[in-house]
Design brief:
Layout lengths: L15 H6 L10 E7 L6 E3 L7 E3 L1 H13 L4 E6 L17 H12 L4 E6 L12 E3 L2 E3 H18 L3 E4 L6 H11 L6 E8 L6 H7 L18 H14 L3 E5 L5 H10 L4 E5 L1 H12 L5 H15 L3 E4 L2 H9 L3
Parallel strand pairs: 1-3, 1-4, 1-12, 4-5, 5-8, 8-9, 9-10, 10-11, 11-12
Antiparallel strand pairs: 2-3, 6-7
Helix pairs in contact: 2-3, 3-4, 4-5, 7-8
């Protein structure tokens, strides 16, 4: 290998055109998935204090927002439901008339070409805030699986392209795949939250979805953050059960997990640039401590560079606009 002074790596950095020719990781709007919080009603756009620029939307407002995002080149959204009522089993999660299902129907009918993903979990819908059925003070894994599968089928019936179980119950991918196929929805894909850590980065989301657990925490089913080998076992199990893509969550503090998953597995890898990561950038930008546009695009590029094929991010709309402007 040549050495300095014959070798000068700065030669390819001299102009924007030269830098563009040799850019190794390219970020595009079509790699971004925009999360949406939806609730029944009309004309509702409720700002979320912990997530500046993000709001809870009624189905009609979600359609308007999706049309805007589609115009920026974003190809997919993921829906999180805000229920009208909660109970011990989260029954509104599998109610065909609930917010996620109604919004899915409207999006598929009015925003051509948009891929609709739906979060499949019970925490937003349960009175206790946990991701499954609680018995004797603990989440009952096996009793939860049929309810998750019912929710997934309900979303598929509404027109969802992808269902995304985020609960971290053992065996839920197989249970969902079996029920989807049995109900005639073999074409609906499963994006499994395969390596989801019990993270402190989820705080703003819990305000947005009103999903904080009323007792205890979620460490008995979400992963220990320090366990990379276990993360690979989780991914492998979800792949074996029929997942069509897998997700690492959160993204930034787990880029090594994204990279290892990319090196080990052939299927698509997603990463979730979660609410706490978004909120920190927004807070620092509001104080003038960082340049928001550059930070956001650098962050998203780092996630793709680590190996993610697509990224769920609350920055999706802004990032797509900046990319369209030639940032």
């Amino acid at each position: 290998m040549a050495r300095f002074p014959e070798l000068r790596l700065r030669r390819w950095r001299r102009t924007p055109a030269l830098r563009g020719l040799v850019r190794e990781t390219r970020l595009a709007a079509e790699q971004l998935v925009a999360p949406m919080f939806v609730r029944l009603g009309r004309g509702l756009r409720e700002p979320i204090g912990a997530l500046p620029g993000v709001a809870r939307l009624s189905p009609d407002e979600a359609v308007a927002e999706a049309e805007r995002l589609r115009g920026l080149g974003i190809g997919a959204v993921i829906l999180f439901g805000i229920p009208g009522r909660k109970d011990d089993t989260g029954s509104e999660a599998f109610d065909d008339a609930a917010a996620v299902q109604e919004t899915t129907r409207q999006l598929k009918g009015r925003v051509p070409g948009l891929a609709v993903m739906t979060d499949v979990c019970l925490d937003e819908y349960t009175s206790h805030g946990h991701c499954g059925v609680v018995r004797d003070g603990d989440v009952d894994n096996d009793a939860t699986l049929p309810l998750l599968a019912r929710a997934a089928v309900s979303h598929a019936r509404a027109g969802a392209d992808v269902v995304a179980p985020s609960d971290m119950m053992d065996g839920r991918v197989a249970a969902i795949r079996r029920e989807l196929d049995g109900a005639g929805f073999a074409r609906v894909a499963i994006l499994a939250y395969a390596a989801k850590a019990a993270s402190a980065y989820y705080g703003p989301f819990r305000e947005a979805a009103d999903s904080a657990p009323k007792f205890g925490d979620r460490r008995s089913y979400q992963m220990e953050g320090g366990n990379r080998r276990e993360a690979m076992r989780e991914v492998a199990l979800d792949v074996a059960e029929g997942a069509d893509a897998v997700m690492v969550k959160p993204a930034l503090a787990y880029l090594d997990v994204v990279r290892e998953a990319r090196e080990r597995f052939e299927l698509p890898i997603a990463a979730y640039n979660v609410s706490g990561e978004y909120a920190m950038v927004k807070a620092a930008a509001a104080n003038g401590w960082i340049e928001e546009k550059r930070i956001v695009l650098e962050t998203l590029t780092s996630i793709v560079r680590a190996g993610a094929d697509f990224v769920l991010t609350y920055h999706a709309g802004d990032a797509a606009r900046w990319l369209k402007e030639g940032a």
